[in-house]
Design goal:
The complex is a heterotrimer of chains A (372), B (123) and C (174). Chain A is α+β, with helices and mostly antiparallel strands and 372 residues long. Chain A contains 15 helices and eight strands. Chain B has 123 residues and is an alpha+beta fold. Classes of the chains: A alpha+beta (372), B alpha+beta (123), C alpha/beta (174).
């Protein structure tokens, strides 16, 4: 006891932010503090490790597409899309045009609802419960559309599957998608109002420079918040993104407030994409013809690396096939992997403890895709 | 004072709430909602495709109780709803359309053994 | 694709090939693949980074059991050329060891290497922080190796054949 007191300063202590903390998700950050100041932060992932990469080696692609929604709770449809594209690439499927449009519409709706959760958790982290409730409430309208189209509110269970989508859009789906955009627009305006409490909590907090962002592997809104205009949808177009017209919002400040501003402006761009895609939606098949419910993976050989722009950054699948029924190796690159470990540790060094939730949530983490 | 917030308050006063009073009112469940399974045992040809594709091994091919064995001599899918992830792959793969997912979703239970859904229930 | 873009692409391939001293292959649009010797990995990554491949997307490992080698793949993205360069290298499976690239991508590369170390048992020379990342109190071999069968492991360690709910898992194994 006496030794300990000699070794440390009276004001020095270590604290755990998470995993039992209400505002941290299944993730833990160990912070060493001196008084109110954080000296060193160590991220501790692993509370959600389910070993998807290994699991996928034991299952065939159709079963994997059901599994792929579970990579991240916040954007299951987008993970579905990345997985389906990886298999399409290996099998050289010609995805029908209509299926591509449906995939993009659903991925963009998924991006919007994911950004709503971002607003919700940022409000929760800073004690603004109204924001949390309103955002989660409006997200539900989008979930209703998902339920109508995919059959599940949160998990589509492989709706976007190798070779297209599993079912065609139901009747009047286009009308309902456009109707839900009105609700989205209301929520977007609600979130963009100048909120003084938010400004005080997020402005000039957790500043990340451009060089650091590139070095530590930042992607998505985090990178665009630092002044790098990079978007996988434009730079490495997949599906039909090269035919659509949308902007990429960029801010130079790199602080928590502007990172979230990017998210809000992306909602607007996503709405633009959805209206365009619904307008041009062609008629025809939604799944590669002559494809059975089970995908025959046996003749696929080779490797592929597919990148997609998820709501939180770059998500990628590296898939190796050797002509067996199941993939030989799958590697999933989640966007939060770089945001939550190196960048979070870097940003938390030397800040006040009160700013910790603000920085933590402005990086928009999802522990599920760190651990996989 | 800004007029905006006051306007918002009045607008919200007369707005319908987002939630519904549950037991009396129910949110409309879409047709595609993946809920409890339904097996049309007369259609089933015991091919076992559903048991093979199930990602969670929730489906097992079992024999029916002895009283009904004469009428249904083969094995039929038994679904363990406790393991099921409601992906509806069994519905897609079924060649006869015997197994379907209904919209019924009130499946919460206190007993672990009651999650198993036998292919046929004797009255 | 316009003719200018096409020209630019072949340009990159040639430039990269001469710069990295290895043959770079353009397999599909915006996907470049190169295979190098494991001793040159830091050198090649540094040159690629200086050429504009600044973003390390991820490091992945593949266990080729029959060949007895690990394959490490470094995926680098260039914001300048809008191309992905995948650097592949093979190392011995019995003594898996390779130099760390933490001098280039700092803690991010270190974290990726930590993952590979934990899941495949690959040793990265020069990386001081190889503490376990995901697995806690794990006593078994590195779980992502091809000769580690987790199905058998979990059946033996965690499941009970007597339990009717877990019986299905035992039956499929047979």
């Amino acid at each position: 006891m006496t030794n300990k007191q000699q070794k440390y300063d009276v004001g020095d202590f270590a604290m755990f932010f998470g995993p039992a903390h209400p505002g941290s998700g299944n993730f833990s950050v160990k912070v060493e503090m001196r008084g109110e100041r954080v000296l060193k932060a160590t991220a501790d992932p692993g509370y959600l490790h389910r070993g998807f990469e290994k699991l996928m080696e034991y299952r065939d692609p159709m079963q994997n597409s059901v599994l792929s929604d579970r990579v991240c709770v916040l954007e299951p449809l987008q993970w579905n899309l990345v997985h389906a594209e990886a298999v399409d690439n290996l099998m050289e499927y010609d995805v029908p045009e209509r299926a591509k449009y449906i995939r993009v519409i659903l991925a963009e709706l998924s991006r919007i609802q994911s950004h709503f959760i971002w607003y919700a958790v940022m409000s929760l982290g800073t004690g603004f419960m109204t924001g949390f409730n309103v955002a989660m409430g409006y997200r539900d309208y989008i979930l209703d559309v998902f339920n109508m189209i995919t059959g599940g509110r949160v998990y589509p269970a492989g709706y976007i599957c190798p070779g297209g989508v599993r079912k065609d859009l139901p009747e009047k789906a286009e009308k309902k998608i456009l109707a839900v955009l009105d609700k989205v627009d209301y929520m977007r305006k609600f979130a963009s109002t100048e909120n003084l409490a938010w400004m005080a909590r997020f402005k000039d907090i957790g500043v990340l420079t451009k060089e650091e962002a590139i070095k530590y592997g930042a992607t998505g809104p985090i990178l665009r918040g630092c002044g790098v205009a990079a978007d996988v949808r434009r730079d490495d177009p997949y599906e039909i993104y090269d035919q659509l017209d949308f902007n990429i919002p960029v801010y130079d400040e790199g602080d928590a407030f502007h990172r979230f501003r990017i998210g809000l402006e992306e909602i607007e761009e996503s709405m633009k994409i959805i209206t365009q895609a619904v307008d041009r939606l062609p008629k025809g098949e939604v799944r590669t013809p002559n494809l059975k419910p089970t995908v025959q993976f046996r003749k696929a050989k080779g490797e592929t690396y597919v990148r997609n722009e998820l709501s939180r950054g770059e998500g990628a699948f590296y898939m190796v096939a050797t002509g067996e029924k199941t993939p030989y190796r799958v590697k999933i690159r989640g966007p939060s992997f770089s945001h939550m470990i190196p960048i979070l540790e870097r940003l938390l060094t030397g800040v006040d403890y009160a700013d910790l939730p603000a920085i933590y949530w402005s990086l928009y983490q999802c522990p599920a895709d760190v651990d996989r | 004072m800004k007029i905006g917030p006051v306007k918002e308050v009045f607008k919200n006063l007369f707005k319908k709430p987002m939630t519904v009073m549950f037991p009396q009112e129910v949110v409309e469940i879409p047709e595609r909602n993946r809920g409890e399974h339904h097996l049309d045992i007369d259609e089933c040809i015991s091919c076992g495709a559903c048991a093979r594709i199930c990602p969670n091994r929730a489906i097992m091919m079992v024999e029916v109780p002895p009283e009904l064995k004469e009428k249904y001599p083969k094995t039929y899918p038994q679904v363990d709803l406790g393991k099921c992830c409601f992906c509806a792959l069994c519905e897609d793969v079924c060649p006869k359309g015997a197994i379907t997912l209904t919209t019924y979703f009130f499946l919460a239970t206190f007993e672990k053994d009651t999650t198993i859904k036998e292919p046929i229930i004797i009255e | 694709m316009t003719a200018i873009e096409q020209e630019k692409k072949t340009d990159i391939v040639e430039k990269l090939s001469s710069e990295l001293d290895a043959s770079v292959v353009l397999k599909t649009d915006r996907r470049l693949w190169v295979t190098i010797d494991s001793s040159k990995v830091v050198d090649t990554c540094l040159k690629a980074q200086q050429m504009g491949f600044e973003h390390l997307s991820t490091i992945s490992a593949v266990d080729w059991l029959e060949e007895g080698r690990f394959e490490l793949v470094y995926h680098l993205w260039s914001y300048k050329y809008n191309s992905l360069l995948s650097i592949k290298t093979k190392i011995d499976r019995n003594k898996p060891s390779i130099s760390s690239i933490n001098s280039i991508w700092d803690t991010y590369a270190e974290t990726c290497e930590r993952e590979c170390h934990e899941l495949f048992g690959i040793d990265f020379k020069g990386n001081s922080n190889l503490t376990p990342l995901f697995l806690e109190d794990w006593k078994g071999p590195p779980p992502f190796l091809k000769d580690f069968n987790w199905r058998e492991y979990t059946l033996k360690e965690l499941y009970d054949e007597e339990n009717p709910r877990e019986k299905a898992y035992f039956e499929v194994k047979k």
